[in-house]
Fold:
Amino acid sequence: MQVLLSDKADVYPEVTVCGLTYTVDEPRVQESPENFEGVRYVNAFRTFQGALDSDGEGAEMIRANFEREGRDLEDPSVANLNYVRGCIHAILILRGLQNAIDAGRNPTSGADVRESMFEIEDDDMLGLSEPFNYMEGDRRPTMTGRLFEVSDGSLAFDEAVELPRREDWIGL
Structure:
């Protein structure tokens, strides 16, 4: 993404670029703010600072993890949205395991945990994301996207948008 954006001004200056945050994070934007200025990104969860500012259970978990691990909350090489994404993935597995145990299923069975993941409903992952729902035929956790725009070397939250849950988008 950075390579493409470095030539944007010369090749296609009138185009607004939008991508997923899998292609960029806070340190990348800070390294080359001139390349990313005005670019829009979408994901379903908060940036690192947004997670901390939410003051929810997820923020408490992240602060406790950083303290326990001796990490610096101001170091963008570790304090970034990819850390938040990793926390959400861990919470998803935790929810699946908890649901399996609560339903009397075997939490060491992959099939049972998978089945239990489909019981995740309206869960905001300790305040780190838009509410997630998992369903048997459609594993997209949410159709709400949080839009960010790069401004002055940071990802600034713009708005949340709700997309329709269209089956043709995933080939069903």
The two ends are 30 Å apart (CA to CA). Residues 81-102 form the longest helix (22 residues). Residues 48-140 form one domain.
